[in-house]
Amino acid sequence: MPSRLREVITYLYGMSEYKLGMMFKKLQTYMCRPAAANHNRPATVIVSGAVVFFLLFFFAPFGLEGTDARRRTLLAGGYALVTAAAVSVVAYVGPILFRRFYRPESWTEWRSVLNYLIVLLAVVVGNFVFSVTVFGLPQRVWLTFLTVCIAMTCIVGAVPVAIIHLYVRANSLRRHTEESRTASLLPGEEIASAGTPPGLAEVVLGGGSRDPLRISPSDLICLEASGNYLRVSYMRPDGAMAQRLLRTTLAMASAELEGCAGIMRCHRAFIVNIHYIYNVEGNSQGLRLRLRACPYTVPVSRPYIKNVLHAIRP
């Protein structure tokens, strides 16, 4: 093989490996990000059953077009009830048996995907039992019919799963938008707890490092964990924001800032000074804070939403 061709093949292989690695990293980041939790389980149960009934009765797939209206109604209604029952079991029994997995504050995209797969599996089992009972299928064809049942459930179930997913996201977006409207400050309005308590006129961040930062707590805007470092955003005397990278952790900084009024944790990777908040935005994943002089928004994860909102609007 010519050396030039070998170089091209090696380059293409390296590029493909790099792109696959980047794609996997992006997918991993997406799957680990917070997802919208289901706060209206009765609605998802009703919607899933209604969608299945609509699809089976009006579109009549899988040979249902050859049945009369009464039999089609009974079959569509039966499969709809099976679907609703399976969704109910996962929605209500799942959080009781697996409380840690279903905690809303730790709900992520990969948990959401796994939950939908569990729902589909429960529907497959229900459809199989219902079909065997109604049609009186002999035991020798059960394995073959189970394969068919899996395919049929995945085809039909993709529609209600997509609708439920969109509904959950829309409902979460509405809730967080309402929370952000309640928490947002009016022009010129100040945080009720503004002010730095006596005796804390200055703190030292990164005291164990070679180059610590001495700063007044009132000048701190936010702190962000960045690997083994801490990115500190603070207000300069000229009113512009400056940043400093310290070799310390967010936990150590939180201990050093203990007792400073208005400085609180809002995310596993962020500490924020609520006195700089001028607007609160909501999306399906949670809340985001807009801070004076800060060009980016700061996320508020679900475990901290209640505390942050109480601090803004006591």
What would you note in describing this structure?
- There is one protein chain.
- This protein is of the alpha+beta class and 314 residues long.
- The chain folds into 2 domains: 33-183, no CATH class; 203-312, OB fold (Dihydrolipoamide Acetyltransferase, E2P) (Beta Barrel), CATH 2.40.50.1020.
- The chain contains 7 helices and 10 strands.
- The strands form 3 sheets. The protein has a 5-stranded antiparallel sheet.
- The longest helix has 42 residues, at 142-183.
- The protein is elongated.
- The protein starts with a helix and ends with a helix.
- Mean pLDDT is 84; it is low at 192-199.
Concise summary:
The protein has helices at 3-32, 41-59, 69-97, 109-135, 142-183, 250-256, 302-312, and strands spanning 203-205, 213-215, 220-226, 229-235, 241-246, 263-267, 270-273, 277-283, 286-291, 298-300. The protein is α+β, with helices and mostly antiparallel strands and 314 residues long.
Count of individual domains: 2
- How many extended strands? 10
Question: What is the beta-strand fraction?
Answer: 15-25%
What is the overall silhouette? elongated
Helix content: 40-55%
Average of pLDDT: 84
Number of helices: 7
Low-confidence stretches: 192-199
Strand order in space, largest sheet: 5-4-3-7-6
The quaternary state of the protein chains shown equals single chain
As a whole number of angstroms, the C-alpha radius of gyration is 27 Å
> What structural category arises from helix and sheet content?
alpha+beta
